[in-house]
Amino acid sequence: MMQKLKVAEIPAMEFISADEVLKFNQIYSFIKVMGYGGFGIVVAAKELRTGMNLALKIVDKSDSNTAHHVRMLKHEAEILEELNHENIITIYNVTHYTNYIVMALKLTKENLMDYVTRMRKQGKPPSEEDCAKIMTGLFRGIAYLHDEKNIIHRDLKPGNALVGSYKDLT
Known about the structure:
By secondary structure, this protein is α+β, with helices and mostly antiparallel strands. It has helices spanning 18-27, 67-82, 112-121, 128-149; strands at residues 3-4, 14-15, 28-37, 40-47, 53-60, 91-96, 100-106, 110-111, 162-165, 168-169.
């Protein structure tokens, strides 16, 4: 019998067993939905053991349309677990449930697109100096991927560049 996760703000997550619901609820406390993407949903949550706020990337494995996304997410997790660079997002763990993969990542403030949009709306578009700092961080991360790990990022765009705090590109 499917068990629904008792977190109203997260779109219905149906676990196969009450044990899986318990397992999820013993690990995380939901904070808010951060966004939706091709892979599923990203939520902010607190890891109860450490008290650390994280971003959870959640993919529903039971949807046959997401089989390709599940394979891609597993591959992404394997790659991220091998990386260690200040300008590359940190992955803390991957938890597999019967219907879901939950990837726990460093929680960042916003992506580059949202940052630039927010600053423009406030009448303070990023200065040339700000842009240079942001691009330097982005290029350092890409150089690390290419030069040290032989990885090519195939989806580089402002929405995928994360800003941890003001001018801190992750």
